[in-house]
Amino acid sequence: MTRLIVAAGGGGDAVAAAMLHAALYGDDERAVILTYAWDRLLVDPLPGPRGPHDFTGLEPLTRSVLSVPPQARPIPPADSTLPRLAAELPHTLALLDPHHGAQGITRQLEELVDHLTPRSVDLLDIGGDILARGDEPTLKSPLADALTLAACAQTNTPVRLLIAGPGLDGEIPPADLRPLLGPHIHTFTTPDTNSISAILDWHPSEATAMLTATARGIRGTCEVRDAGLPIPLTDEGPTVHQVDLDNALDRNTLARSVMTTTTLTEAEAYSRQICGFSEIDYERDKAARLKEQPPAPLDAGTVLARLDTFEREARSRGVTHTTFRRITEALGLSGGQREHLRALLTETWPHQYAAPLWELSPPESGQ
To answer: Shortest CA distance to 219 belongs to which of 238, 236, 234, 237?
Structure first.
């Protein structure tokens, strides 16, 4: 017997799922983590989530579910962090495929439950945007969470919904989330982060980075995303809470609407209707812009000078920390240059590496 954890939003939720498993269930058991291959444009130049047809080397778990082993490879120009995650995590990564809508994900879940007879099924979301109504002005990425919530609500097995790092995704303010959170399940601390420390040296997830940073006691304001969204790093950051799944579904209009969808295109249409946008449309537009704007070369002197300007401006906004993803995009570099940028900065100013975040340099005397 094993545990089944559904990473609600893909990306860093799968990394956080591994940390959660170690904290709640120990190292003796292994989990199957069902997750999207949806790494956003910093990693994958193609908009939207990847499906089984975008990989070679996947292995069957059930009729509808394929695992991502370390030897799997995305087919260019697609890219994915999942094969590298599979090599570094002790768990099985299973590919969550949204291209057949919520009905397809429901089928995947039911097949996995029948195949694994898991001791528990957890649905994990970092930040709490899975609890969005759909009309929040700060909402950016509701579709992935809505599809997994809709599927879990239709699965004939008990599913526990867990919210880690309330507010860390920047989509629902912590004050709005607090009344919605149920029992406190766990508070991550530094030892909990040890199992994923090496992964966060290269994985671009900002929410998981901030979850880890708050678990390590880092406090302040972290600027994230291409838009420079400020996220408070507080004592709430490393907490995990349970939320009643039916209550979440009642609140999430998009999740209720997509329950009968059989294609991703159909689910996207509901997102445009209910939320006023589709996050995949945003990625399509951004991908087109990136093609027209070649990234600047990674020249150390130029990068460090531009970083100094960025840090001065960020400090004036009250920012204390940022992510390497944010720096990469703010300096006009490509996703492929992110790891080189991180290596350059951590070697040049190692005292500013508040792993896995970057701490802004203090203002010079007299500023």
So the answer is: 234
